[in-house]
Sequence to fold (338 residues):
Amino acid sequence: METKRLTPADASDAARVIRCGGLLGIPTETVYGLGANGLDPAAVGRIFTAKGRPQDNPLILHIPSADWLERFCEDIPPQAKTLADRFWPGPLTMILKRKAIVPGAATAGLDTVGMRCPDCAVTREIIALADVPVAAPSGNTSGRPSPTTAAAMLEDMDGKIQAIVDAGPCAVGVESPIVDLTVTPPRLLRPGGVTLEELEDALGEVAVDEAVRRLMAPGEHPKAPGMKYRHYAPKAPVTVVKGDPDETAGYIAARMGEASGVICFDEYRGYFRGHPVETIGPAADQAEQARRIFDALRAFDHLPVTDIWAQSPDDSGIGLAVTNRLNKAAGFHIIELG
Ligand code: TXA
Ligand code: MG
Fold:
């Protein structure tokens, strides 16, 4: 199939792809998504096939406004309204109890569903025109880094989807945080653009699922099924080095092999002359690091590196999301200095 390139002016063509049961690349503020009619089990099934996604990994439903929640969810707690008022449209997914209208194909048979209202006007317009919630995982082949541009998504999906809407690079760059509101206290299953600190400010106590910070052992079941997979991984193995940036740069420079690649902060490029280097922004600019981390990981798949070393930001703010993605790309192969 030939994948059509659409622009934000083509919202009605894009909505038609969804209405007809097709697959559509959708821009969002976090990452590009692989969208289909979330109420149509056959369309949802095509998402799993195109991504090579394990069947036990549920999808998020995207809606154009919070007032759609009641159509698809029940027993909605007051915290859902609090979060929607503060953070929607925006990078936040809530786990709520689903109504029977949501097919088990979308939720991998769970009785809950992830709901998200993205901060991307054209995508909200497409969903409203299609008049169905759009199920959309990140638009990568399963296991690869998520795409933050239409070009990155086409690397994985060209020829497998009907169309993609190109709205430029994503403003946040890492996927939405997932907050489970079916448990008390609410539980953060995946960190993202709305930070843990902001969620605590809105909700009070928020538990952090163990899968956010460590590797799940075989047989352990994190609450977000997707968190158990090795993920975001370039082809070469990754080692993450945590600590003061001067020290981590020195540590990596002293140990790297002849054909090692490096992911580093802008200021440290000079430590790694002669090696393939992907910079992710200044050490102090975590928002920029979030925007660039997936591109950096993807870039190494086009370079002849034997292994990849990465400087890691700290866990504050959106840094928790950046370190989570890096750690997962590294299969939690982490060296802590100091
Ligand atoms: O920013 C985002 O959330 C992007 C854009 C496209 O919206 N979407 C995204 O979807 O990252 P995906 O499928 O790549 O990641 C969804 C994660 C998976 O780890 C999945 O297991 C978890 O959310 N999830 C989905 N529904 C869930 C549920 N009912 N209970 C627990 N975890 C759920
Ligand atoms: Mg994903």
